[in-house]
Amino acid sequence: MKVYDAQHIRNVALVGHSGSGKTQLASAILFDTDAVNRLGHVDDGTTVTDFDEEEIARKHTLSASTAYAEWKTTKINLIDTPGMANFFSDACAAMRVADAAVVVVDAVHGSEVITEKVWTAAAELDLPCLVALNRLDRERGSLERSLESLQAGFGRTVVPIQLPIGAEHDFRGVVDLVAMKAVTFDGDGRTATVGEVPAELADEAGAAREALIELVAEADDSLMEQFFEAGTLTQEELEAGLRTATAGRHVFPVVCTSATSNLGIQPLLDAILNYVPSPEQRALPIVDGEGAPASSHDPAQATSTAMVWKTIADPFAGRITMFRVASGSLKADSVIHNVSTDVDERLGSVAVMQGKTQETVAEIMAGDLGTVAKLKDTRTGNTLAAKGTTWRFAPFQFTEPVLSYAIEPKSRGDEEKISTALQRLGEEDPTIRYARDPRTGQLLLSGQGQLHIEVTVAKLKRRFGVEVNLKLPRIPYRETIRAATEAHGLHKKQTGGHGQFGDCKIKVKPLDRGEDFQFIDEIFGGSIPRGFIPAIEKGIQDARTSGFLAGYPMVDFAVTLYDGSFHPVDSNEMSFRMAGRLAFRDAMSRAKPTILEPVMSVEVYAPSDFAGDLMGDLNSRRGRIGGMETRGTSTAIKAQVPMAEMLTYEQQLTSSTGGRGSYHMEFSHYEEVPAHLQGKVIAEAKAERGETDDEQAG
């Protein structure tokens, strides 16, 4: 394969809302550049970058993948990313190693929730953005309406550098506002004809060009002077100024496309070459040995360095590591040091990825993307560099899970296989968590939402041959008391020979929420020997773990041991441990026990049109609205909602917003379950354990 230097490489991440056409756009680019010999379609499952069985079945990208194309002697690396909130971390990782983001926007819907999220993420990374206004050939596809929504959210610097020729189904080409030429397409879309601007668009194109010139001039003082003197800019000045303004995030050019019909693809490729910075112009941020931000890494240095941005867990090939070479080169059959783990790694063969196909090469040059298999101690976010390097590339920040499901193996003895497989998948997707809940004993699989968890379970089966049942998790309820009382625990048994005798008296009182448990020893005068007091506490601890009402742990109360008696022969640790248990149950019968439930802090993010309905839905889930914040065309709603009401929230949010809403939640605190719901919680807990009321009472 041809070797490209950094000047002749462009790394772009295709990002945007689900359904905007990112994968189809990648497919059209590969077709127009002769990287593939036919135009693949998402609906047919024939695209290069959506190759996973689950992606093909769902017709949605679920994991970032790479492909490459050559356009006019320049290699364009495409990173196709998911557009659903559940998999947003992959889009963020892709933008870390890209030199620009191509924000794909559906011309029918305009700016959407994920559009805003990727825009914010790009701003945090200081990443230049082009906007590909896609699907302009669809009914109601409109540059005007889409541009209005984009500028409302991101400002007037989102500006067209093209105008569409023809509307909706008649869309057939673009007016290049920089060159002031019309580019139309015939047949399969790969044949472009350059001509004069159609007369009916001349005035509109002229006005749009003047608006573009003004924005470019505003971004540069020397161009502003030239603009004031001459009243305009030359094409050369406009091109150079637009390149600089785009790289500096002062201007965000908008191009017009239809990926499905393969229209506008070549002008998009020209825009990538002309206005996206090369890798040699964008240094990756680094941190020092203490983790503090340091100066950016110089891509021109000779030393070999690379950032690992993604890991793939392949059951046959093992761990596949995807990286960007930041400087120097990574060569096959060489050794490089992992600065993050302080171990040397031997590189076998290195390759470039065209979807799922790996093409082996001798080396990967600075600025390029590549892969290597079977590195032992290298994970996503690691830095590869020379031994002794004191800096690292800035670490990745992975999103914490928002939802957990309980998993159970379908086949006995698969617990170990599940653990091994989930460990591998966790390397591929660091936003996955799995652990046994010490409170409920369930094995919990946690992720970014229901779809995320379902996809992970599908990977378990397909890649590792492990099938599991997915269940809603047990809510980690707690029990507590509302009243102080005194209690007596007497354990006495005489069956001949040594008997059993333990006697204790306790006081219980509620504690503030979150204080858990206190045991206070106020025994004086030897009514209970000191050696037996830990046994009483142990008995109470045993009993509180199983609760009183529904079998949930008892929390936020204090026990004071103040009196008791013993038998010089029959008393022992076991007897006093039993006495402690009996005293606990006696106390609970009068201490007004109640059920506590976990309450979550929830933030819902959706287009403002849905705000009223979403607030109503949260209220119906016993939520308390904490505030609203408008962000562009979207609204963020903050609320506190019981966990029990949020287990199936994702489906409802997706349904009510047409997939345009997302949410985040985290644990906040415990509070009392309303009285009218406590009976249901208790009954469900008993039924799960197969208990009757009589058994519970005993």
Give an overview of the whole structure.
- The chain folds into five domains: 6-281, P-loop containing nucleotide triphosphate hydrolases (Rossmann fold, 3-Layer(aba) Sandwich); 286-393, Translation factors (Elongation Factor Tu (Ef-tu), domain 3, Beta Barrel), CATH 2.40.30; 403-471, Alpha-Beta Plaits; 479-591, Ribosomal Protein S5, domain 2; 596-677, Alpha-Beta Plaits, CATH 3.30.70.240.
- The protein is an alpha+beta fold and 698 residues long.
- The chain has 17 helices and 37 strands.
- Residues 693-698 have low confidence and may be disordered.
- It starts with 8 loop residues before the first strand and ends with a helix.
- It has an eight-stranded antiparallel β-sheet with strand order 18-17-23-14-15-22-19-20.
- Helix 6 (202-218) crosses helix 7 (221-230) and helix 10 crosses helix 11 (450-464).
Write the layout of secondary structure elements.
Blueprint: E1 9-15, H1 22-32, H2 53-58, E2 65-71, E3 74-80, H3 88-97, E4 100-106, H4 113-124, E5 129-134, H5 143-154, E6 158-160, E7 162-165, E8 173-176, E9 181-186, E10 191-195, H6 202-218, H7 221-230, H8 235-247, E11 252-256, H9 265-275, E12 286-287, E13 293-294, E14 305-314, E15 318-327, E16 329-331, E17 334-338, E18 343-347, E19 350-354, E20 357-361, E21 363-365, E22 369-373, E23 383-385, E24 392-393, E25 403-409, H10 415-428, E26 433-436, E27 443-447, H11 450-464, E28 468-471, E29 478-481, E30 485-493, E31 500-510, E32 517-521, H12 533-545, E33 557-565, H13 573-588, E34 593-607, H14 611-620, E35 624-631, E36 634-642, H15 649-657, E37 662-672, H16 675-689, H17 693-697
Parallel strand pairs: 1-3, 1-4, 4-5, 5-11, 6-11, 32-33
Antiparallel strand pairs: 2-3, 7-8, 8-9, 9-10, 12-13, 12-24, 14-15, 14-23, 15-22, 16-21, 17-18, 17-23, 19-20, 19-22, 25-27, 25-28, 26-27, 29-34, 30-31, 31-33, 34-36, 34-37, 35-36
Helix pairs in contact: 3-4, 6-7, 10-11, 12-13
